[in-house]
Amino acid sequence: MGTRFKRLAALAGALVLVSSVSGPMIARAAEAGNAQGLRMGTDLFWNYDFTTKVGAGWDKVDWNVTLLFYNNAEVDKVKNSSAMRFSYPFSGGSMYAFMNDGAGGYYDSDRGPKTDTPSCFGDTRHFRIYADADDRMYTTGLGYWVFATTHKDFNELCADYYGDTNGTEADVANRFASKGYTVLRNYSYFYNYEPYHLDPRNKKHRWQCDGYATYIRM
Is-annotated flag, keyword Signal (predicted)? Predict the structure, then answer.
């Protein structure tokens, strides 16, 4: 067990890969990378979000999960925190994440905060936050927790391409750290590594992710 997994085990118990669960069926394919279920204590979640909650599959993956907020996290609490309220004042379009807290499978949707409105001559960072029906999940060790995907929209209304997953993860982490929150950078491996490449089904989608998620204590 590597150093990061030992640290994770001390915080919340081992993160477990789930090869067969009730939820979106994700085929292993290069286009989608390593989309799969992960179990955090008694809770299950997928390590990517999706463009749809109907027939979600490997060809409908959107972005990698790269952030986890824990201790006393809740979706609106994260969005309205001192680190985010004025830093990410705009919203994007809805995507979907799948999870199961033991009460059954659940899709959550989120538009997600953005740093700016779409334009032809500016970039905007964008992340979406997910949890179950009461906007937070609970497991021993982590407490109440939520998770998020990250990316950057480049000149969205003209050049119109997307990427920089880890750059936006770092941007969010820096904003929380600057406000005094505990930030554990690249704390746990989430099995969603993607080498740099263009998605063959959407050349505007530029994959690149180191596979590690940052934890932020709320």
Answer: yes
CB 25 within 8 A of CB 209: no
Q: Which two tokens stand for residue 33?
A: 């990378």
pTM: 0.87
Closest by alpha carbon to 64, among 18, 107, 110, 32? 32
Q: Residue 172: CB partners within 8 Å, gap ≥ 6?
A: 67, 83, 84, 125, 127, 148, 150, 214, 216
The single residue listed with the structure tokens 């003209």 is 158
User: pLDDT, tens digit, for every residue of 2-61?
Assistant: 444 334 434 444 466 554 333 333 322 225 567 889 999 889 999 999 998 877 667 788
Each residue of 6-15: pLDDT tens digit? 344 344 444 6
Q: If you ran DSSP here, which 8-state letter would residue 214 be given? A: E
CB atoms within 10 A of CB 187: 18
* Residue 57 near residue 27, CB atoms below 8 Å: yes
Cα 209–chain centre separation: 11
